[in-house]
Amino acid sequence: MRLRLQPDHDPKLQPDDVDQLLDMARGVDAEGRGPLEDEWDGAYGIRGLYAALAEGWSIKAGLAADRFDFMTDGQRFQRSQVIDHCEAQADRWRRKLAASLRTG
Predict the structure, then answer these.
(1) Which of 1, 78, 84, 93 could make an SS bond with 53 (beta carbons 3.0 to 4.6 A apart)?
(2) How is residue 44 annotated by DSSP?
(3) Distance (Å, rounded) from C-alpha 13 to C-alpha 20?
(4) What gap in Å lies between CA 94 and CA 25, rounded to an integer?
(5) Triad 92, 34, 37: Cα angle to 5°
(6) How far is Cα of residue 37 from the mean position of the Cα atoms in its chain?
(7) DSSP class per residue in 45-95
């Protein structure tokens, strides 16, 4: 998940944010035990991962929400591109989640 979410890149996520997202990705293990059961072996489901990645990128978009484009001294700064990128990534993972639900 760290590879796909890049939590240490701008806009950065806090370690607690990443931990909460990982909690979202937890799934049933090979023995059929859920994350809240004592013997759960740390399995993570692909659908949970897609949902967590979409949420993570949405959080990053929110962190960048105060960025705006501006021009000064003849230079143009398009800081809103960060928001657009984060939103596009969130949409990407939502589409993957939706496709995984349709295909079972």
Answers:
(1) 93
(2) B
(3) 11
(4) 14
(5) 140
(6) 25
(7) -HHHHHHHHHHHHHHHHHHTTT--EEEETTEEEETHHHHHHHHHHHHHHHH
Single pTM value for the model: 0.84
CB 31 within 8 A of CB 57: no
Tokens 């990534």 belong to residue: 89
User: Residue 26: CB partners within 8 Å, gap ≥ 6?
Assistant: 35, 40, 42, 43, 44, 45, 48
Taking only the tens place, the pLDDT of each residue in 4-63 is 999 999 999 999 999 999 999 999 999 999 999 999 998 998 999 999 999 999 999 999
9 DSSP assignment: S
Q: Which domain holds residue 98?
A: 2-103
DSSP code at position 99: H
Token pair for residue 79? 């800081």
Rounded to whole angstroms, how far apart are CA atoms 72 and 50? 40
Distance separating alpha carbons of residues 33 and 83, to the nearest angstrom: 38
What single letter denotes the amino acid at residue 9? Answer: H
